[in-house]
Amino acid sequence: ASPGELHMCGASLALLLSSSGLGTRDGLLFGRVAVCTHTLFQDDDDDGSQAGSTGMQQVQDRHTYITSTLACASLCSFYDASGQVQGERLQELMGVGRDPIIGWFSSRGQDTLCQPSMRETAVTLSLQNWMQQQVDQSGQPPPVLMALLMQHPDHGGATLTLDYRYFYLSGGQPTHGLQPLELSITNLAQGLGHKAYEGLSSVMAHACSLARAAGAGVGQPPAAGLTTAAEAALKQVADIEGNHQALLRELQAVCRQVTEGSAQLQQLEKEGIQLAAELAALTEPL
User: Angle at CA 208, nearest 5°, toward 3 and 185?
Assistant: First the structure.
């Protein structure tokens, strides 16, 4: 199945690119797939008829969210040289507490084309077969993604350009190959260029849960997802406000200590002047 629209938080993408700049390596992509159902109103006017036919049509939009990544130290971290996935090694890398695996990435060095190799295609196909074995008969595995990361040192190594490109396995067959897929950065304001940014949550998992809640899966009304997202955002605002008030109270306490210290210093200076005057009077010649 097609992944639909692919989304990734800008901070997660920056972390992925920074790990690719450390050398040739590979890793895993984790995320979720949300299906949003829309109801469209149709008003078709058939030729030769005075009255048109009206009706409602259900349209589903798929959204794939990359929520986290895992970078390994070298290549062939969960597959062999022929591109066959090793299930036990993959299970060890996945760990617990993560979103389901939805793909993998490969980081290359310089002077290479930004196209998947035959082994990278074989790894993607083998990973899809492994993921299909992990779901039951009624479940549907998520689309398999493949990210290709490139490094281009310039100016004698003083600068480093990092490029990336996402692919997905079309049709599930090697003959179809890996098709390019556009990535949408969720924290960039739409249509406003790079000058305006939307708010980015300080907790990555919370930001991803908001995106999934706003997406509202099949069988869940969109309003329920928006309500959940609004409640979570309000709670986060309340927590930030509480921390802000606590910092203000600490600042006020420090200001009071500074004021009291200044008063004591002025009193000590006054006493010092008086003592100096008395000492001068005692030392005057008779």
Answer: 60
- Integer Cα distance of 18 and 133 in angstroms: 33
pLDDT tens column, 4-51? 889 888 888 888 888 776 678 899 999 988 888 877 766 655 444 444
Burial of 258 from C-beta contacts in 10 A (0-12 / 13-18 / 19+): exposed
CA dist., res. 47 & res. 176, Å (int):
41
Residues facing 70 on adjacent strands: 28
pTM of the model: 0.59
Tokens coding 184: 């949408």
> Over the stretch 191-235, which tens digit does the pLDDT of each residue have?
444 444 444 444 333 334 444 444 444 444 555 656 777 777 788
